Amino acid sequence: MISDYPVPVLGFAAFSGTGKTTLLKRLIPLLRQHGLRIALVKHAHHEFDVDKPGKDSYELRKAGAAQVLVASSRRWALMCDNDTEQEPRLQDMLVRLETSDVDLVLVEGFKRERFPKIELHREGQGHPLLFLSDDSIIALATDAQVPSAATLPVLDINDPEQIAEFIETRILQRQSPGDTQQGRTS
């Protein structure tokens, strides 16, 4: 269960094209400047491969190795093929992370799962607000006027410094990891 996870987990939920990756590319360096060690879990809605045809690791995996661990002096990667077409669950992916050198796990995607998330919303896209039907969303980052029904913190989607400050004060300083998993707080 995510509530038992040893470090805080915070997701970014939005419709495709909202700018989740763009924001995270700006946000992660800001959090790192404050000494935070970040892990990231990203959900892909399509088939992908991190390896390339012709490389030994790719060819050995395609030959039938269910797991291939590739290591060098700079990084290592574990590639696992799933025997099922079932969508992964965030909980199952989190157990694969090494948390001993991580302060915070950021999650891109998995928007339908229940865990603390910041919703990203852009007015020009015409999508509905997710927080109205998902009480695990703890803040809204948007460029739109927020309806009066908003009872959660509202952040500027175009201000990664403000979002980083929210994460540091709301997720990392004020709450213990167990508290951050409960969804919206007062």
Low-confidence residue ranges: 174-186
Q: Can you count the beta strands?
A: 8
Q: Would you state the CATH class of the largest domain?
A: Alpha Beta
Q: Strand order across the biggest sheet?
A: 2-5-1-6-7-8
CATH superfamily of the largest domain: P-loop containing nucleotide triphosphate hydrolases
**Roughly how many Å apart are the termini?**
23 Å
Structural class: alpha/beta
CATH topology of the largest domain: Rossmann fold
Domain count: the total is 2
Tally of helical segments: 5
Globally, the shape reads globular
Largest sheet: 6 strands, parallel
Topology:
Blueprint: E1 9-13, H1 20-33, E2 38-42, H2 56-62, E3 67-71, E4 76-80, H3 90-94, E5 104-108, E6 117-121, E7 137-142, E8 154-156, H4 160-173, H5 177-180
Parallel strand pairs: 1-5, 1-6, 2-5, 6-7, 7-8
Antiparallel strand pairs: 3-4
Helix pairs in contact: 1-4
Task: Explain what this protein looks like in three dimensions.
- This protein is an alpha/beta fold and 186 residues long.
- It contains 5 helices and 8 strands, in the order E-H-E-H-E-E-H-E-E-E-E-H-H.
- It has helices at 20-33, 56-62, 90-94, 160-173, 177-180, and strands at residues 9-13, 38-42, 67-71, 76-80, 104-108, 117-121, 137-142, 154-156.
- A hairpin with a 4-residue loop joins strand 3 and strand 4 (76-80).
- The longest helix has 14 residues, at 20-33.
- The chain starts with 8 loop residues before the first strand and ends in a 6-residue tail after the last helix.
